[in-house]
Amino acid sequence: MSAPPISVKGVLIAEDRVLLLLNERGEWDLPGGRPDLGEDHRAALKREVQEEAGLVVEVDAPLDEHLFEVLPGRFVRILPFVCRLTGNGDVVLSHEHLETRWLPLAELGERIQGHPLPAGYLGAIRQAIDQPRSVSARSV
Known about the structure:
This protein is of the alpha+beta class. The protein has one domain (6-133): Nucleoside Triphosphate Pyrophosphohydrolase. It contains 2 helices and 10 strands; from the N terminus they run ββββαββββββα. The protein has helices spanning 41-53, 119-130, and strands at 6-14, 17-22, 28-29, 32-33, 57-62, 66-71, 74-85, 99-104, 111-112, 115-116. Strands 1, 2, 3, 4, 5, 6, 7 and 8 form an 8-stranded mixed beta sheet that branches. Strands 9-10 form a two-stranded antiparallel ribbon. A hairpin with a 2-residue loop joins β1 (6-14) and β2. The radius of gyration is 14 Å and the shape is globular.
């Protein structure tokens, strides 16, 4: 059995809100994706956030990785990182997602607007919340 593919994901918190994207499976997602062959994980995440949301970020601390069952029997190894917004927070949604939301942290839960937020992503967001953030990371 081969190792599951890797997907890097960004937990982007600004002004006490986290960026979520609604995917084609009807689940809330974190921005990110698969690194190209030989591509550094942080560089891949910066590229993916730019492609999916039109945002420029710096990639900071790694968070706890986890396996995510995307479809029954199909797993992806999720490598989440704390991200810091370096430009404005105006999202330009790509064709890869149906909707975007800067979710207030006070509204964080397993379901948001009727759509699930996978447990691994929820855990990564909570872990990022517990880490100290700089003042610049709080502004959009």
